[in-house]
Amino acid sequence: MVVNSFIQSTRALLAKFGIDAPDIRIEGLTLDSRDVNTKTAFVAVKGHERDGRDFIPQAISLGARVILAQTDDSQAHGQMEMRDHSVIISLYQLPSMLSALAAAFYDYPALKMMTVAVTGTNGKTSTVQLLTQLKDALGTRSASVGTLGSSVYEGENTQWVTTAAANTTPNAIRLQYVLAEFVQCEVRHTAFEASSHALVQGRLSQVKTDIAVFTNLTRDHLDYHGTMEEYAKAKRLLLDQPGLEAVVLNVNDSESQNWADYLDANAAKDGSSEEIAISKPRVTRVWTGFEPTDDVLATHKQPQDRHCFATNVSYHSSGIRFDLVSSWGTAPIELALFGSFNVSNTLSAISCLLAQGERFENVVRVVNGLQPVPGRMEVFPVGGSASVIVDYAHTPDALEQVLKSAKTHTAGKVWCVFGCGGDRDKGKRPLMGAAAEQHADVIVITTDNSRSESPESIASDIKAGLQRPNDAVEEADRESAIRYCLDSADENDIIIVAGKGHEDYQIIGTQQTDYNERTVVARLQQEYKK
Ligand SMILES: CC(=O)N[C@H]1[C@@H](OP(=O)(O)OP(=O)(O)OC[C@H]2O[C@@H](n3ccc(=O)[nH]c3=O)[C@H](O)[C@@H]2O)O[C@H](CO)[C@@H](O)[C@@H]1O[C@H](C)C(=O)N[C@@H](C)C(=O)N[C@H](CCC(=O)O)C(=O)O
């Protein structure tokens, strides 16, 4: 897909921020001096590790004609200095201007489409992907931004990936750029993951957001946020997004009440932002979750709230059945997805569609055709043999959740193929071993990016967490490990292959080789099908 370049005059751009700048034509903005060329302005800000201003000489040597540099002196705001062929324009509080600057440069792309931002500790990627798939099935060209990269949805297995993701949420400039690319590709709906880091750093502060989704909150990222309270507050910043019309909350997670309280407390405030003037009607709250009790409903629901609940949920060998009970209607749902968390993710996605005004019957129709998210609890049924599930789980908690979920889908055995990364957090190895032993019937320890360590020594660290280390099977080669399970498992068993998910490489020693577990399992699926 060819995207036209974006051309702006620095004078017109900076005039929007009250600065009288020279008239230089630029085709892009970048925070990284290494990406600079003669047509790209370098935006130099102080970071967490380094100071972008130290890279100004590099940007000049790469031909930058315009450099926007953070200054800590309010008096210096707007001052200009020529250095070689470059003009350096000082901007006070530049980090907090980045989103607005990029929105102005790329002509406010979020205003040209429907947008949904998803935050929460778990479920962001799946919710974004499921919503994108559903919206596309309903006939709206859709795109997603998050851990899996930025892509326009082009149907099952053929997503056009714009960029692989360096961060869950791209930096403030990159995000506006990606949205502008989507506009050029005639995208009318974008769902994106909003990480807590991104929210605190204002990476999305000028991205008009129609709907905010909160999935859940558990312990994570305390190295960055310090305390759970700060982490929770960071997530709640999503409620300050410009343009918010609806918020999807999880009735089963107590943090949702803080979101509801925040909305109540701020209902009277004007929601317009400085750069994007949008009047703020009362935000609609849509509650999602599993069969809430009357008590829960009484504390959470206001008369004007909407809901989207799952009742009579049952898990079986090819998916999940439940009754969707919502303010828009009631219908039986058959999902070809695994895991109770996928019920939650699907409910969040359904809530967004219904809040956007999609017809209930159409939503039910497309939900019944949902495909798994690549590499996230992705099922490969092998007729006559066990089903294989490829999942990205690579932490003790994630592994436990995945194995517990698998157990709900079968009366047979759950097999677990997994490993741990070399040269990384050794502490989690015995914990992953313990989680696997507790929740799987058979465990097969294999290689997962062993890097400079030997797979055997990593396996021995994993086994240190086992009660019965001699029962664990060791097979360093991942494909052979999966074959071992397929050769020995019964028809009703489930084989969880954890750790790789959507990734397509294996790092052993210093060698990175191509390894796509989804492709391998799809091949084995054909081979073993009876
Ligand atoms: C703490 C944090 O958010 N860091 C992110 C942030 O780094 P930073 O701004 O502090 O950058 P820095 O490395 O100190 O450099 C300062 C400036 O110098 C520039 N620079 C640097 C080197 C150079 O040669 N030239 C150059 O111009 C950098 O582009 C930057 O503008 O901006 C960088 C560029 O966008 C990100 O890559 C970097 O993510 C690092 C890799 C990271 O680990 N981030 C994690 C903590 C993170 O943000 N994670 C969340 C997801 C968490 C989750 O939910 O799972 C995310 O949204 O990605």
Helices, strands, pairings?
Layout: E1 8-9, H1 10-15, E2 25-26, E3 28-30, E4 40-44, H2 56-61, E5 66-71, E6 80-83, E7 86-92, H3 94-105, E8 114-119, H4 124-137, E9 142-146, E10 149-152, E11 160-163, H5 172-184, E12 189-193, H6 196-200, E13 211-214, H7 222-225, H8 228-236, E14 246-250, H9 255-266, E15 284-290, H10 294-300, E16 306-316, E17 319-326, E18 329-335, H11 340-355, H12 360-367, E19 378-380, E20 387-391, H13 396-408, E21 414-418, H14 428-439, E22 442-445, H15 455-463, E23 473-474, H16 478-488, E24 494-498, E25 505-508, E26 511-514, H17 517-528
Helix pairs in contact: 3-5, 4-11, 13-14, 14-15, 16-17
The structure holds ligand UAG.
| Domain module tally | 3
Largest sheet: 11 strands, mixed
How many helices does DSSP assign? 17
**Classification by helices and strands:** alpha/beta
What's the quaternary structure here? single chain
Hetero groups in this structure are:
ligand UAG
User: In percent, how much strand structure appears in the residues?
Assistant: 15-25%
Second CATH tier, the architecture of the largest domain? 3-Layer(aba) Sandwich
CATH domain class of the largest domain: Alpha Beta
Overall form:
globular
CATH names the topology of the largest domain as: UDP-N-acetylmuramoyl-L-alanine:D-glutamate ligase
The tally of strands reads 26
Major sheet: arrangement of strands: 11-10-9-12-8-13-14-15-16-17-18
CATH superfamily of the largest domain: Mur-like, catalytic domain
| Overall average residue pLDDT | 93
Q: Cα distance, first to last residue?
A: 41 Å
Helix % is: 25-40%
Q: Which segments are poorly predicted (pLDDT under 50) over 5 or more consecutive residues?
A: 274-279
Computed Rg: 25 Å
